Amino acid sequence: MTAVGTDHLPDAARSRRPARVRLLWSVAVLAALAVIMVASVALGSRGTTWSDVLAALGGADGSLEQAAVTKRIPRTLLAVLIGAALGLAGGVMQGVTRNPLADPGILGVNMGASLAVATAVAFFGLTSPTGYVWVAMTGAGAAAVFVYTVGSLGRGGATPLKLALAGAATSAAFASLVSAVVLPRNDIAGGFRLWQIGGVGGASYERIGHVLPFLAVGFAICLLSARALNSLALGDEVAAGLGERVAVIRATAALGAVVLCGAATAAAGPIAFVGLIVPHACRLLVGVDHRWLLPFSALIGAGLLTAADVVGRMVARPADVEVGIVTALIGAPFFIYIVRRQKVRDL
Known about the structure:
With about 350 residues, this protein is mainly alpha-helical. The longest helix is centred in the first third of the chain and has 34 residues, at about 65-95. The protein has a single domain, classed as ABC transporter involved in vitamin B12 uptake, BtuC (Orthogonal Bundle). It is globular, with a radius of gyration of 20 Å. Helices cover about 75% and strands about 0% of the residues.
């Protein structure tokens, strides 16, 4: 693995935040997420009033406006869950690899899940919603192992830039393979094109119910790994000296991230850049302590994806711009900025 950090422990010390500041940011982030969720329920291609929103939240769907709000509620919940999963997975991946460029999309994990699902549907007749999740997690895990293996070859091991390049090449190759698998199949091509972009437009309570148990397991594994990731950030030798089993930490935390990525991709398609942007923003707010960083990554990831979905609905009314396109427009410039930063070797 790479070294500890650009300035090692002094940089980490400067990144600490007082508990009072963290609590204030917690309140602010929760309030912002609540506002974004209300906006997601209230705004869309059809205009609604507050009375329509309140009536729909109470179970009414007698008018077109109330029916529109009723349809937006599961869409909002799915966006919150998927955003939280991708934000948390990105924070864990960056902690496990000590790589500021780590992201489920950039490292090819999401596209690996996409290829596995496309292959299972096209050649094995996969139709079970739960089967989608298991297949997606398998593909995500295989892609993560493959990219890390390729990025570790040569001098210097798995440097951030080598991992990013390996992930980008793998994502491009997998995307081409998905097209090769899907395009000859007219019976599945139409639905896969929309799913491959990444979006939450077809959300339903049933879809949420299928992925929720997997997301809950992934959330639990990742959040319980926070203290161990703090030790890992000090370096492998120091972590081992503190009694941590480094290989077990990495494997367990990575498993949690893969579960989240697989479930999120199965439900909403391969959405990129959320896991890249969110942890960097959270470090500015609460510092580098993973016990705070990971929960904040989940909350801000939920807010970011939900806000991106609202923007996608508003900019092209009455049509929708899929949320995967909006996050790509936001995340691509941020990715370039991170790559160009000096001393971007590790966290």
